[in-house]
Description:
The complex is a heterodimer of chains A (112) and B (113).
Chain A: E1 4-7, E2 10-14, E3 19-25, E4 32-38, E5 45-51, E6 56-59, E7 62-67, E8 72-77, E9 86-92, E10 101-102, E11 106-111
Parallel strand pairs in A: 2-11
Antiparallel strand pairs in A: 1-3, 3-8, 4-5, 4-9, 6-7, 7-8, 9-10, 9-11
Chain B: E1 5-7, E2 10-13, E3 19-24, E4 31-37, E5 44-50, E6 53-57, E7 65-68, E8 75-79, E9 88-95, E10 103-104, E11 108-112
Parallel strand pairs in B: 2-11
Antiparallel strand pairs in B: 1-3, 3-8, 4-5, 4-9, 5-6, 7-8, 9-10, 9-11
Amino acid sequence: GENVEQHPSTLSVQEGDSAVIKCTYSDSASNYFPWYKQELGKRPQLIIDIRSNVGEKKDQRIAVTLNKTAKHFSLHITETQPEDSAVYFCAASIQAGTALIFGKGTTLSVSS
Amino acid sequence: EPEVTQTPSHQVTQMGQEVILRCVPISNHLYFYWYRQILGQKVEFLVSFYNNEISEKSEIFDDQFSVERPDGSNFTLKIRSTKLEDSAMYFCASSGQGGNEQYFGPGTRLTVT
């Protein structure tokens, strides 16, 4: 089955710096890659996603890139702010309506 | 903006007891899911449900687990005989016609003593 690896497990940056979180997946049939942000004690919130027919997607300060050949995708956050501090999870799924397989998460700390 | 809701927010039960966790998915969504998250760990898929039947389940979802959509709005997860290792946060999620974007509920924290 699908396996998703995520790095780093923790990431500390200064406010205003950029943050990059990377994930790799094992199943070449996976074609949907969402990113979730989870604040302490809260639900995972979908912040951005990308499908396999697209190489990059941007939404304000966040962007996701996908390299299908290498089977990896990355989350980029620019101009980080303290409220970006949270656990970020990447995930992959094979098709609509199927299981999301999550990475182990990255704890991002943004200090002011 | 519509959201997935879950009840109760916290459930404490004794080992061997049955529990039912309840979810109300977003009203026009067609796909429903249960995930669990043991404290400090990643989110793990349990089961997906579409067109009134299970479409996919993980190894975690054994005979102790069952799901049901008893009416047009609720989606439930039943654990027949709880074990200590079932202690976790259980998240319900739903997705719409396209099926991809899954929106999570606030979770039910299950504590088995």
